[in-house]
Write a structure and sequence with these properties.
- The chain has helices spanning 4-21, 68-74, 123-127, 134-147, 164-170; strands spanning 45-52, 58-63, 97-101, 116-117, 174-175.
- With 176 residues, the chain is of the alpha/beta class.
- The protein has two domains: 41-109, Ubiquitin-like (UB roll), CATH 3.10.20; 111-176, DNA polymerase, domain 1 (Orthogonal Bundle).
- The strands form two sheets. Strands 2-1-3 form a three-stranded mixed sheet, covered by helices on one side.
- A hairpin with a 5-residue loop joins strand 1 (45-52) and strand 2 (58-63).
- The longest helix is centred in the first third of the chain and has 18 residues, at 4-21.
């Protein structure tokens, strides 16, 4: 029995070493955790079109996560006639966003293409409107998800927290 004991221990040791060192040559075909396919693509750079009462209007390539005040600085700052009171200068901008800084003395002449569609705009784009913060922007999206596309811009006053004063502030910038 004494002679068999070292052999048995050697066999157990060999089996243990072999099983501990044995690894598959190829990784598994499907990894345990994979990135969510529905996650939005994070862009390194975005493009912002800023118009109106800035010194150098135009399209600016900026880092993702850039705020409105930073793009205004890149555009040479505001003119003396700029009406910025309705804007959230700390707004985080999104790709292809159009920002129009109005003039205090006169209404800005907008073409239909530069207006924000309240029926399709993203949360970030809605938040670029004067007096519209995250909660109100989400309320607009919730309303249109429940009721469908807006037929008129006046219909936005049916959204919670949007009254006449807010409507008057955003009306020049929106379309259904």
């Amino acid at each position: 029995m004494e002679k068999k004991r070292p052999i048995v221990l050697a066999i157990i040791l060999i089996i243990w070493v072999f099983s501990a060192c044995h690894r598959p040559l190829n990784p598994p075909l499907y990894p345990e955790s994979s990135p969510d396919i529905d996650e939005p693509l994070q862009l390194e750079y975005i493009y912002i079109d800023i118009k109106g009462e800035v010194r150098v209007p135009g399209v600016y390539k900026v880092s993702n996560g850039t705020r409105l005040y930073q793009v205004i600085e890149q555009a040479g700052g505001l003119t003396k006639d700029a009406d910025i009171l309705g804007y959230n200068l700390s707004l985080v901008l999104s790709d292809q966003q159009v920002i129009v800084i109005p003039n205090k003395a006169q209404e800005f002449d907008y073409d239909e293409e530069s207006l924000i569609s309240i029926s399709t705009a993203s949360l970030q784009l809605l938040m670029s409107l004067p007096n519209i913060g995250p909660a109100t922007a989400q309320a607009i999206i919730d309303y249109r998800n429940e009721h469908g596309h807006f037929q008129t811009i006046e219909e936005i006053m049916n959204v919670r927290n949007i009254g006449v004063a807010t409507f008057d502030a955003i009306a020049p910038f929106i379309r259904p």
